[in-house]
Design brief:
Low-confidence stretches: 343-416, 535-547
Mean pLDDT: 80
Structural class: alpha+beta
Radius of gyration: 30 Å
Helix content: 25-40%
Bound molecules: adenosine-5'-diphosphate, magnesium ion
């Protein structure tokens, strides 16, 4: 075939292949244009999941008559004129290819009235606009309405890729929510087949902004959210994240904006996951709405046709800033009393939301019920070991309040209740510690709490140098496959810092010579085998992330194995020792899998439960 120039419509259809993959992408481009035009109010109507109709109506600056057909030409934009502009983008659009691409695969009409025009003008086309286009006078208030009908009517192959209207609608809904979070000051509504799906008023202050965030992220997110606002090195991170006790099965509640643009970025996801998932089960995902602002010159937004990815010039710096800011904020959280309050319903055992735990309802119990995996995991780990070691460890660190022979200290005998977590009263079914504090009853999940205490202690040891290690009486040989043995051997030095001394014993054998003391009586071979498995996981490559991340996983694993197991009888001084340790421990509110470690039952709630006036 001889070389020839492609016809315009085909060029646009090729571009549309990248920009317009589904109705949601059209909606996103149109709404972004409305935002760029300074709209204060944007109304979106969809039919048949957007396949039959997408209509976006705004009250923005409008398009003058003589620019209407230009707006539909390829590489025509009113937003940038030079390379300098491109390097410091302030608008959402800049490529000048959305409208012509959309036109090339749909029946489209634009009706617009610019600020100084006497009336509106309208232009329409199917696939393309003939000649200069038929521009007709029309009736329309100031602003623009763009209608896109029968998407992919002329590209049947692409039409076949569309999913059900419900699925396509969900994609549109998600995009519109992102844009609504990016621009709270703009009123945004969505209707499908005439039915109103949401209608968000312009947020003028903090309260109305909260209303919007709640409408998009839900009440659970609101009650667990923590506000954050930190600046460093010309970067600012603000917004909210949910305490680790609230997590999701997917990444659906992760909103991240870079200079007002919603982006998905592996580096960002990795930094936030590392900061938040420390106290979260590995199958769960954190929730956040975070806004990063930085010099537009230091971020390249022109790296993706749909503009949903960016490239940071100083990616390491961005990573460290995000990680540090969120970690700092998490550290400042403790103690978070309201998070641990269990509320009793005034009519216990009757309403439906008590099905999981009769009479109890609190966000903590709720989040626990959301992640069934914890039960399986915890039960698998139940064995009878560990507590004596923990006591020895406490004494080594001088942290236990009881004396060496296990007698209660005089201070504790007075039954004072001014410790945040109170004094232990009893152990329930070998699992929970019941304690009394000034506010009422405290319930502690002993395994989860101990696990967190050990984890934080090891982290501290690590930051002070290395975790001490204890040589095994006889080295233990562990058979793995050759790849896993290679992988572990290559991490020998990093593992040594964690108190694990390993050597290669053969092509597929690893020999363990020393372990951290808290693991001295544990099943070392299963720990090492699970480490080898975890190392196979895919991880993004970040300069400092590699080692640290493996380390925290190993630490978490070690802590889980070493923590007291269920059905281990605890004495009162042992229980009190754990409570005091928890009070001193950072992030003691959650175990390493994100489950809460304790809850508070208020006296007033107990009174109400028994219909007792006080
Ligand atoms: P880009 O947004 O990258 O500039 P588009 O193809 O999306 O390219 O839009 C082309 C141009 O049409 C824009 O630069 C803008 O000048 C104009 N335009 C599009 N939509 C609107 C709107 N809703 N209100 C005002 N002007 C608009
Ligand atoms: Mg655009």
């Amino acid at each position: 075939m001889p070389i020839q120039l492609l016809p315009d419509i085909l060029i646009n259809q090729i571009a549309a292949g990248e920009v317009v993959e589904r109705p949601a992408a059209v909606l996103k481009e149109l709404v972004e244009n409305s935002i760029d035009a300074g709209a204060r109010k944007i109304e979106v109507d969809l039919e048949q999941g957007g396949q039959r109709l997408i209509r976006v109506r705004d009250d923005g600056a409008g398009i003058p008559r003589d620019e209407l057909s230009l707006a539909l030409s390829r590489h025509a934009t009113g937003k940038i004129t030079s390379l300098q502009d491109l390097e410091a983008i302030g608008t959402l659009g800049f490529r000048g290819e959305a409208l012509p691409s959309i036109l090339s695969v749909s029946r489209m009409s634009i009706c617009s009235r610019a600020a100084d025009a006497e009336h509106a003008w309208k232009i329409e086309g199917s696939g393309e606009i003939a000649g200069d286009g038929e521009i007709q006078p029309a009736a329309h208030p100031f602003g623009t309405s763009i209608e896109v009908r029968d998407l992919f009517f002329n590209t049947p192959a692409r039409r076949k890729f569309l999913k059900s209207p419900a699925t396509e609608l969900r994609h549109s809904d998600q995009w519109l929510k992102k844009l609504a979070l990016a621009r709270p000051e703009v009123a945004i509504s969505l209707r499908h087949e005439g039915r109103r799906l949401f209608d968000l008023a312009a947020a003028v202050d903090e309260t109305s902004r909260d209303v919007r965030v709640a409408a998009i992220c839900g009440d659970e997110f609101m009650s667990h959210r923590v506000a954050l606002d930190q600046s460093r090195l010309g970067m600012r991170l603000s917004g909210w994240f949910a305490r680790p006790s609230f997590s999701r099965a997917s990444t659906d509640l992760q909103y991240f904006f870079v200079n007002g643009r919603s982006v998905r970025d592996r580096l960002v996801a990795f930094a936030l996951r590392r900061a938040l998932a420390d106290a979260m089960h590995s199958t769960r995902h954190p929730a956040f709405v975070l806004y990063l602002e930085l010099d537009p010159m230091s971020v390249d937004v022109n790296v993706h046709p749909q503009k949903t990815e960016v490239r940071f010039r100083e990616s390491g710096q961005v990573h460290d800033f995000l990680f540090g800011a969120v970690q700092q904020c998490l550290r400042d959280l403790r103690p978070s009393e309201d998070q641990h309050q269990v509320r009793f319903s005034s009519t216990p055992l009757s309403s439906s939301d008590h099905s999981r735990s009769p009479g109890l309802s609190s966000s903590n119990w709720g989040s626990r019920a959301q992640s069934p995996s914890w039960q399986v995991r915890e039960q698998a780990g139940f064995q009878q070991t560990g507590w004596a070691l923990m006591q020895a460890e406490q004494q080594r660190l001088g942290s236990a309040e009881e004396s060496a022979d296990g007698r209660v200290s005089p201070e504790m005998q007075h039954g004072e209740t001014d410790h945040a977590l109170g004094r232990a009263l009893a152990q329930l079914h070998g699992v929970f510690i019941l304690a009394q504090n000034a506010r009422g009853l405290v319930l502690v999940d002993a395994h989860a709490a101990h696990e967190r205490v050990l984890y934080e202690r090891m982290k501290k040891d690590l930051s002070a140098g290395a975790i001490p290690s204890q040589t095994l009486l006889s080295p233990e040989a562990i058979s793995l496959n050759e790849d896993a043995a290679d992988e572990l051997e290559s991490r020998k030095e990093a593992l040594a810092l964690l108190g694990l001394d390993i050597d290669r014993g053969g092509p597929a054998t690893i020999v363990v010579r020393a372990v951290p003391p808290i693991l001295a009586r544990e099943d070392v071979s299963s720990l090492v085998a699970s480490l080898a498995r975890e190392d196979g996981r895919e991880k993004p490559h970040v300069h400092l992330g590699e080692v640290l991340d493996t380390q925290s996983r190993v630490l978490a694993d070690v802590a889980c194995r070493a923590a007291i197991k269920a059905n281990r009888h605890l004495t009162l001084p042992e229980m009190d020792g754990l409570l005091r340790d928890m009070e001193r421990t950072e992030l003691a509110d959650q175990c390493n899998h994100g489950r809460p470690t304790w809850v508070q039952l208020e006296m007033a709630e107990l009174d109400r439960l028994f219909l007792r006036g006080r």
